Amino acid sequence: MKNPDSSGKPLLANFARLPSTNEGTGANYGTLASTATSNDPSSHPRVFIDSSSNDSSSSSSSSSGCCCGNQELAGTSASTTAQHSINNQTLDEENRILADKLRGSMVQEDDIPTIKNKCGKDVAQFYINQNDLILSMLEVHNDHSDEDIEQQASESKLYQEKVRFAIHISVAANIVLSVVQLYVALSSHSLSLFATMADAMMDLLSSLILLFASIAAEQKDTHKRYPSGRSRIETVGIIIFASLMGAFSTGLLMESITSLLSQSNERNSLNLLNGMCIVVALATKLALFFYCFALRKNHSAHVLMLDHRNDLFVNSFGLSMALLGRHLYPWIDPLGCLVVALFILRSWIREAWEQMQLIVGISADPAFLQLLTYTAMTHHPLITHVDTVRAYHSGARLFVEVDIVMAPETPLRIIHDVAETLQNRYERMDCVERAFVHVDYECLHHPEHSPTSYSK
C-alpha cells in the first residue's frame, strides 16, 4: 500500500513490507524494515523470511531433523532457561519501542477532516483504516489477566445473546408483517405492493433459515460427526435463501413485463388503510435496522441489517409507485414492481457470491494478515523468524495457519508453551474459528505440503 500523502507522516509501511495483493496461501511477508528496531543497539533479531517458494514445516520435522543427543540437549536446556528472563526483558523493551513508533504513526482525528478537504475522501479513509490497524496492533501489547479473559468471555456471551434476540425479534416481526402485507396486496390489487408482500414472505423464510442455522451451530455434536463445528451451516443457509430469492425475483420480473406489455388501464384499489399498514411496516423495519446495525460485527446480524435496509427501500418505493399508479398513470404500478424485482435480484446475487467466496475459502484481508504477523513477531523472544502466515475463511469465520521458527536447542517444553500461548491469542480473536501454529528449527527448506495443497 503506497502512502498517498506527501507530508512525510510515518506510516505502518515503515515497520514491515507486506504484500499488496490479497494472498491467503503462501503469503510472502518479506523482511522486517530496519526502521522499527535498528536504532536500538540491544534490539533482538526478529526477521521475516521470504516464503513465497517455501511452505511451512511442521514441528514433527523439527524433531526428526535435530541431530543433538540427549546429553547435549540437557546441557543446552539450562543455558536456554537462564537466558529466558533476559530475553523477556529485551522483548519488552523492543515492544515498547515498536509501540511508541506505532503511536507516532497515527493521524489525529482532528486532522482527518482537513486531509479530506485537501486530499480527498480516499486519502482520509486510508488514514482512518491505518489508525484502526495501529490500534489493533497496540492491543497486542496489552497483557490480559485471567480476570480480563473471563470478562471478555462474559461480554462475548452477552453479545451473542443480543444477536440471538435480534434473530428472534426479526422472525416475530416478519411473521406479523407478512400477514399485514398479504392483506394489503390482496385488497389493493397493486403489483408493486404484491412485490413488497412477496419480499416480506421471503424475509420470513430468511429469518427462519438464520434461526435454524444459529440453533444448529450452537448445539453440541455428541457423536463428533463434525470435528470442526457446524458454524458453516449459516453460510450454506444464506446461499440457499439467496437462490430462492433469485427465482422469486425472476417470477416478479416476468409478471411485471407481462402487465406492461398488455397496456392495461386498470388502476389499483389502494386506500388509506393500505397506506397506513405500509407505514407501520416501515417503522418496524427502521427500528429493527438500527438494532441490528449496532450488532453488525456478527455475521447473522449483518445479514439481517442488510435485509431490513433493503425492506425500507422496497416498501417505500412500492408504496410510492402504487400511489402514483393509483392517481396518475396505471402503468407506473407494474413498472414499480419491475424495479423492485430487479433490486431484489441484484442484491441477493451479490450476497450469494460473497457467501460462496467465504465457504470456498477466500483469504482474509491484508490488514488482518498484518495483525497476525505483528502478533507472532512480538509474542516471544525465542521466536527468531515468522516463516508463513495464512488466514482464510471457512464460512463466516477464519482459519489461521502460522509457521514460526525457534532455535534447534530450545527445549520441547518451551516450544510447546510458546506455540500454545500464541495459538490461544489467535483463537481469542472474534473472527477466528481455529488457529494452527507450527514450529520449525530452520526456514531454508523445501515445501512439505503437496503442490496442490495450496494455490500459488
From TrEMBL:
Bias kind Low complexity: ranges: 50-62
Transmembrane domains' residue ranges: 165-186, 192-213, 233-253, 273-294
GO CC, alphabetical: membrane
Matches recorded under InterPro entries: Cation_efflux (IPR002524), Cation_efflux_CTD_sf (IPR036837), Cation_efflux_TM (IPR058533), Cation_efflux_TMD_sf (IPR027469), CDF_Transporter (IPR050291)
Predominant localisation class: membrane
GO MF term set: monoatomic cation transmembrane transporter activity
Residue stretches of biased makeup (Polar residues): 31-42
Cellular localisation: Membrane
Record carries keyword Transport: yes
Any GO BP: inorganic ion homeostasis
Highest rank taxon of the organism: Eukaryota
Keywords: Membrane, Transmembrane, Transmembrane helix, Transport
Topology term for the membrane: Multi-pass membrane protein
Start and end residues of each stretch annotated as Disordered: 1-62
Pfam family of the protein (one): Cation_efflux
Domain Cation efflux protein transmembrane: 168-359
Alphabetical list of NCBIfam families matching this protein: CDF
UniProt protein name: Cation efflux protein transmembrane domain-containing protein
Species assigned in the record: Mycoemilia scoparia
